[in-house]
Design brief:
The structure is a homodimer.
Chain A lengths: L1 H35 L3 H12 L4 E2 H8 L3 H13 L3 E5 L7 E5 L1 H21 L5 H12 L10
Antiparallel strand pairs in A: 1-3, 2-3
The first copy, chain A, binds a DNA duplex (30 and 30 nucleotides) through helix 3 and helix 4.
DNA sequence: AAAAAATACTTTAAGCTTAAAAATTTTAAT
DNA sequence: ATTAAAATTTTTAAGCTTAAAGTATTTTTT
C-alpha cells in the first residue's frame, strides 16, 4: 500500500511541476513577445551562445538545448535573418558551421537576460533561498536520464 | 547582496525545473508515440475528459489545459478522426459543443493512464515521499498566476 | 584507392502552438 | 424590436517541434 501511495504522490508532484513550468513558460513567452519581439526558443538559443564565447556548432546547440537538429536549423535561420547570429565556416570541415552571436545579438540578449532574471525572481517570490536550494538539489539528484550538467 | 544571491538561486531552480520537466515530457512523448501511437497533447486532452464524466466544452478544455482555443480545435479534430472523442451539440446554445470520450477512447485512455503512472513513478524514483510532498506543497504555494486548483 | 561507415547538417511531412481575425449565436441595452 | 456587446468556436498566418529521409563531407575499412 505504501508503494501505491508513493506512486500517487510522485504523480501529483509531476503534475504540479508541469503546471508551474507551463505557467512560467507562458509568462516568459508573453513578455519576450511583447517587450522584446522575440520568442522563448530564440531566447534559449541566444542564451546558449552567450554563455559560450566562441560560438557553438549546430550539433552542440542541438545537444545542449535537447532539441532536434532540424529544429535548430529553423531557429538559426530566423536569428540570422534578424541579424542576431551568424554562421561561420569551420576550416577543415566543410560539413559543420559555427554559430556566433553578432554584436547586435549579444547586446540584445544582455538586456533580455537582465529582465529575464527579474521576471523569474518575481514569479518565484514565494520560494525562500533554502527551499530553492533544497528543491534544486533534489531535482539535480534525479536518476540518470533526467539530469545533466548545469 | 542577499537579494542578489536569492535571485540567482531562484533562477538556478527555474532552470533545473525546466530541464527536468522537458526531459520527462520528452520521455513521455516518446513512449506515447511508440507504445500507444499517440501524442502528449492528445493524452492531456483525454485525461481532462476522463476526469470529468460528462464531457467538457471546448472552452472549458482550453481553460483547464491552459492552451489556446484554436489549439484545442485542432487536437479535437484529430481525436474525432481517430474515434476517441465526439462532439455533441448542446441544446439551447448552438455556439458551443460538448466534447466526450467515446467508449473506445475511454478504454484506450484507461490503459495509457496506468502505464503513465508507472513511467512517472520510475522517473521520479529518487524522490522520497516526504520530499515529493514537500516540493508539491511549495509549488502549490507559489504566487497567484502560477498555481491553480489541482 | 575504393567502398563503407560515420558525421554534420538540411529538408520534409505531420502535428503542436499562439495571437489575431472572422463567423455564429446569444445576451444585454436602448 | 433593434442594436450593441459578449460569448463560443473556428480559421489563419507564423513559428516551433519531431522523426525520418536526404545531401554533402569526412573518416575508417578493406
Amino acid at each position: 500500500m505504501t508503494a501505491e501511495r508513493l506512486s500517487k504522490e510522485r504523480l501529483r508532484l509531476w503534475l504540479r511541476m508541469l503546471r508551474v513550468t507551463r505557467q512560467v513558460e507562458s509568462t516568459l513567452r508573453e513578455r519576450l513577445r511583447t517587450e522584446h519581439d522575440t520568442t522563448l526558443p530564440r531566447f534559449d538559443v541566444m542564451a546558449a551562445l552567450y554563455a559560450d564565447g566562441n560560438g557553438l556548432k549546430m550539433n552542440e546547440l542541438s545537444r545542449r538545448l535537447r532539441v532536434s537538429n532540424g529544429n535548430v536549423t529553423g531557429i538559426i535561420d530566423r536569428l540570422v535573418e534578424d541579424g542576431c547570429v551568424e554562421r561561420i565556416a569551420i576550416e577543415g570541415d566543410r560539413r559543420a558551421t559555427r554559430v556566433c552571436l553578432t554584436d547586435a545579438g549579444r547586446a540584445s540578449f544582455s538586456k533580455m537576460a537582465t529582465e529575464h532574471e527579474r521576471w523569474i525572481n518575481a514569479l518565484f517570490e514565494g520560494v525562500a533561498e533554502e527551499d530553492a536550494h533544497h528543491i534544486g538539489e533534489l531535482l539535480h539528484r534525479l536518476p540518470t536520464p533526467l539530469h545533466d550538467a548545469t
